[in-house]
Amino acid sequence: MKTTNKQKSLLKCINVATNALFDAADGLTTLARYLHYYKVAHLEFKPRFDDIFIVTYPRSGTTWLQMILYQLATDGNMEIDHIAQKVPWFERLIDYRIWDSKDFEQMNSPRLFKSHLPANEVPKGGCKYIYVARNGSDVALSYFEFYRSHLGFKGDFNQFFKLFISGRVQFGSWFDHVASWEKMSKKLPSQVLFLTFEDLKNDFNNQLNKIINFTGFKILESQRADVIERCSFRFMKQHEDKFDHITAQIWEKGYQRSSFIREGKAGLGKLKLTPEQHSIVQKMLKQFHIENL
Ligand code: A3P
Fold first, then answer.
1. Residue 283 confidence (pLDDT) above 80
2. What is the Å distance from ligand 1's center to 66 Cα?
């Protein structure tokens, strides 16, 4: 069937209106999220002196640091569902509105958090921060692969590179992020430990000592080999389900596995709803003239 001129103008109008509404909705969502984040993170959240924030631009070694700190702060056992339970992503729990200030209060000290916030947005108040920076070209490449594998990006690396270099990616400009934290580490050297992915790769033992000195966590010399082994790429790759992004989201959003194909029985509603609730359903069936149920 041929599209008439009237249909063509209607399509044009709908396209313009839809795009404008999506843009407006995005703007409002961003504003609402920011206000909510500001309220919880800056007005309600009470930082503690022994809080440690692991901060990075994505794809710079965040998960590696989460694992290192988990190993140093606990016995490091692997009976965990996901590292996010031990070192949760601070702003994301707020963003998803799963946690409020009470949940943060209930965490035992020392609280360990992951964050991708720039230096000016992270909660302040005497806590410590470990920032890990990674070579920008390596970050661009790793982030491109992540965009393709997790965010449905269909473009090629050239297209991604233009977005990355101009800061039009999820976490904004890599340059601004690293610069903000480099500045803060110079201003507050006792509170910010600035590490690089490359040093961790080339000289893990010494970087581990730096982290131990900075955080005050102690390990016995006999434990060191275990920590090094568990933080190795090989070990973490072998236990990838305890570190991956998808399982983290399941935990952060409070989803429960094995709860979708549930009981599959008929008539449970009548048993589990109150008689009042059940009779409301029955009355409404009549109002809607539904006869077959
Ligand atoms: P590549 O994509 O270059 O392999 P983040 O946790 O910040 O998202 O960083 C992810 C990057 O850190 C990935 O880089 C990942 O392979 C690397 N990584 C994670 N654990 C590591 C480890 N134990 N040793 C070396 N690199 C690790």
1. yes
2. 11
What spacing in Å lies between the alpha carbon of 61 and ligand 1's midpoint?
Answer: 5
pLDDT at 3 over 90: no
Domain ranges of the chain: 1-44, 46-252, 263-293
Stretch 60-80: mean pLDDT, rounded?
Answer: 97
C-alpha span between 57 and 195 (Å, rounded): 12
Q: Is the CB of 71 under 6 A from ligand 1?
A: no
pTM of the model: 0.90
Instruction: Tell the CATH superfamily of the 46-252 domain.
Output: P-loop containing nucleotide triphosphate hydrolases (3.40.50.300)
**Which of 233, 239, 243 is the best mutation target for the ligand 1 pocket, counting ligand atoms within 8 Å of the beta carbon and taking the most?**
233
Give the separation between CA 110 and CA 115, rounded to whole angstroms: 16
pLDDT at 42: 94
Rounded CA separation 70/19 (Å): 45
Instruction: Report which protein residue has its CA nearest ligand 1's atom 17.
Output: 61
